């Protein structure tokens, strides 16, 4: 009897001490091993800047001509911008670097964020190969004049162990010519859920790729032609150029922590297909503004839903600000595409080489009662 009473007492104590809430599941978000390339090869594994040996770059496997470079002025009048650190890997003709990741969840979606800068040719491309998928990311357009462009792609893990490869498919007269890779991180994408009263998934853009904390010019999200799985869950980048994912630490964000900047004018559009009921009326609301990054001038965001269009002007002083707009529309089928784009091109006030544009946030669609 005493044993039973003791067990009951212990069970009661455990219930009292237990948290009423289950701990949140852990999601992967980190740099690749030596993802900032700050652990150098041994001096004996370097021939000037060229890495000698397949496994000489710590934590990475290399193929072809790969250089270990430092940021700053270079011989021949070049300048290598490496804003997140001191060192980077430069991929020469048809060269590649690879790393094997373990502990992934098969079937889950992951995003890879990486810094990339072209160094020679106008048509440089980085090809990312992972889990049987391939993405060609053009880096010929410089969206940041300081060379701080960052990109993100996404993939579905086929197994718990995957190899990620960054490859330069180009062939130039100078065999060392090729893009720099200067920071690489991975993030597991959280499952999407509807917000009560909102038919738009991830309308506040809070689920997205990894953003670097020490330095950021935003993360460029390639169009769906290059990236079949969106690194911005729920959304389609349906344009010729990328849109930019921005964070509150480095930019003005109208709400919460993240937003989208439409940086490439009419070549930069973002869309989502939502569930609707034919002939029912809905109200689309959204917030536009500027990112407090010196982007100035008369901006405009055009919104499309059903058969309706709305043009929303916004005059930016480049100091941060926002306004709310709304559009009432009638659904014509059980699926409705909502689309946003900016018809104008913009640059920073004191930096005409830095492309920018209006900010989009807080997208909501709700039925008209």
TrEMBL record:
Subcellular location, principal: secreted
Coiled-coil annotated spans: none
Keywords per UniProt: Cell wall, Glycoprotein, Secreted, Signal
InterPro entries: DGR2-like_dom, Pectin_Meth_Modulator
Subcellular location: Secreted, Cell wall
One Pfam family in the UniProt entry: DUF642
Keyword Glycoprotein annotated: yes
Domain DUF642: 31-187, 199-365
Residues making up the signal peptide according to the UniProt record: 1-18
Protein name: DUF642 domain-containing protein
Originating species: Tripterygium wilfordii
């Amino acid at each position: 009897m005493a044993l039973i009473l003791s067990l009951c007492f212990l069970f009661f104590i455990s219930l009292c001490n237990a948290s009423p809430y289950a701990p949140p599941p852990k999601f992967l978000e980190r740099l690749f091993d030596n993802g900032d390339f700050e652990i150098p090869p041994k001096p004996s594994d370097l021939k000037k800047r060229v890495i000698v040996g397949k496994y000489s770059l710590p934590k990475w496997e290399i193929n072809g001509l790969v250089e270990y470079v430092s940021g700053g002025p270079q011989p021949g009048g070049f300048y290598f911008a490496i804003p997140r650190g001191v060192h980077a890997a430069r991929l020469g003709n048809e060269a590649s670097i690879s790393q094997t990741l373990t502990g992934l969840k098969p079937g889950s979606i992951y995003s890879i964020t990486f810094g990339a800068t072209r160094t020679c040719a106008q048509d440089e491309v980085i090809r990312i190969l992972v889990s049987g998928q391939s993405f060609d990311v053009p880096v010929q357009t410089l969206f940041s004049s300081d060379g701080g462009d960052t990109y993100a792609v996404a993939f579905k893990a086929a197994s718990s162990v995957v190899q990620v490869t960054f490859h330069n498919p180009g062939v130039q007269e100078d065999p060392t010519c090729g893009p720099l890779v200067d920071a690489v991180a991975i993030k597991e994408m959280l499952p999407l859920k509807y917000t009560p009263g909102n038919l738009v998934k991830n309308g506040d853009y809070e689920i997205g790729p990894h953003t670097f904390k020490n330095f950021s010019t935003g993360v460029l999200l390639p169009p769906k032609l290059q990236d079949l799985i969106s690194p911005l869950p729920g959304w389609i980048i349906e344009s010729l150029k990328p849109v930019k994912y921005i964070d509150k630490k480095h930019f003005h964000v109208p709400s919460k922590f993240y937003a989208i900047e439409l940086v490439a004018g009419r070549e930069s559009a973002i869309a989502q297909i939502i569930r609707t009921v034919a002939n029912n009326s809905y109200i689309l609301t959204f917030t536009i503004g500027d990112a407090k990054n010196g982007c100035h001038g008369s901006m405009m965001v055009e919104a499309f839903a059903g058969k309706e269009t709305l043009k929303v002007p916004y005059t930016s002083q480049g100091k941060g600000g926002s306004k709310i707009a709304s559009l009432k529309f009638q659904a014509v089928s059980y699926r409705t595409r909502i689309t946003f784009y900016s018809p104008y091109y913009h640059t920073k006030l004191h930096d005409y080489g830095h492309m920018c544009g209006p900010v989009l946030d807080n997208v909501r669609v709700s039925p008209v009662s």
